[in-house]
Design brief:
Rossmann fold; about 160 residues; about 55% helix; about 10% strand; five-stranded parallel β-sheet; alpha/beta
């Protein structure tokens, strides 16, 4: 199973909608965040988004793993990307490019930069679609999760998984 690294927004969509179980079921043992994303999650918790504590629980349980920029190549790419992107997105792209991970993100600018670097991409919709295809949830459950994500602040151009 390929490794996948999440930016804060995409991961938060699943945490705030009570659907982190989807990530655990689909990608168990190969789900990562960078220490920069962990810091963003902590900031969200401190701002009152208590459901983000489930991300910290997943880190403690070990099915979600934290990684750091470990090579000079990753650090150099991170520095370059952090000029125009957030630290979480920049760090995830650097790790994904260097290690061959899939980058899970919904931010257009970050996705554009990752695409230019030929980093494999997915996002909230792709993961929900995969969850339905693999019968982790049925389509109705997927639509309920999507609706909850939208209620929690996720900007979605679609209202139903049928539209994907």
């Amino acid at each position: 199973m390929p490794e996948i690294i999440f930016d804060c927004c995409c991961l938060s969509n699943f945490a705030l909608s009570g659907s982190l179980f989807i990530l655990e079921n689909l990608f168990k043992g190969s789900v990562y965040v960078t220490n920069f994303v962990s810091a963003e999650i902590l900031r969200g918790i401190q701002q009152g988004h208590i459901d983000l504590e489930k991300v910290q629980e997943a880190l403690m349980d070990g099915w979600l793993r934290e990684t750091v920029l470990s090579s000079q190549k990753e650090k150099s790419l991170f520095e370059k990307l952090s000029v125009s992107l957030g630290l979480g997105e920049a760090s995830c792209i650097a790790v994904a490019k260097s290690r061959g991970f899939i980058f899970a993100c919904d931010d257009r600018a970050a996705m554009r930069e990752a695409g230019l670097l030929e980093v494999k991409l997915t996002g909230t919709f792709g993961i929900l679609k995969k969850a339905v295809r693999r019968k982790t949830v049925n389509r109705n459950e997927g639509n309920l999760i999507l609706a909850k994500m939208i209620d929690m602040g996720f900007y979605s151009p679609i209202k139903s998984l049928k539209e994907i």
